[in-house]
């Protein structure tokens, strides 16, 4: 991978989701304007096999729709309002497709972390569909594919030109070795798993460590101290501010 050598990268978690509805174009555009170096987003498959950006399997929390994403076509999903739940300012904001997001990403230099939401619904061929779309846009060199699904990580071994990451919120002995054994090049961990021992193991295994979801100054500073590869934050401008302070200190 041709990742440039920088301090801990700041990924906007579902876009700048503190300030705009998560996983929508306003949140992504704002993250870019705030100076984030990367975007983290989530992918599900529609009834007609279109990858769309939404976190939950169901529509209720972040749209005015009901039921499962998988039971609608993309054209049907586009009619739901994905912004009013956050603020009237964003009324009429639509769910977007991965294709739309990648097209926008070609106009900038942001790193992309695309989480495959296949740990609860194991969408058939999700890895291949998403990878081929990324390859069509020639974005493999600045994209990470992550998932909680260990079988999915194994399946992505067939895509050697893109970085893959095992997501986890649970501690496990020799976690870095487990990730490497699955074929992952990175380990994305919940903040509470960030320990010196794990960082040491990951370095030995040449596995990158990134941490989610980090919004508080003290937690950010700990990630910077351990030289983590990246943090996922809802407030990317805060991450940049505190990273700059850490570098000065």
Short description:
By secondary structure, this protein is α/β, with parallel strands linked by helices.
List the helices and strands and how they pair.
Layout: E1 9-13, H1 25-33, E2 38-45, E3 51-53, H2 74-77, H3 98-105, E4 111-116, H4 126-136, E5 143-147, H5 150-155, E6 163-168, H6 175-182, E7 186-190, H7 196-205, E8 208-212, H8 217-225, E9 230-233, H9 236-248
Parallel strand pairs: 1-2, 1-9, 2-4, 4-5, 5-6, 6-7, 7-8, 8-9
Antiparallel strand pairs: 2-3
Helix pairs in contact: 6-7, 8-9
Low-confidence stretches: none
Sketch the topology as an H/E string, one letter per element. EHEEHHEHEHEHEHEHEH
CATH architecture: Alpha-Beta Barrel
Radius of gyration: 17 Å
Structural class, please?
A: alpha/beta
The number of domains is 1
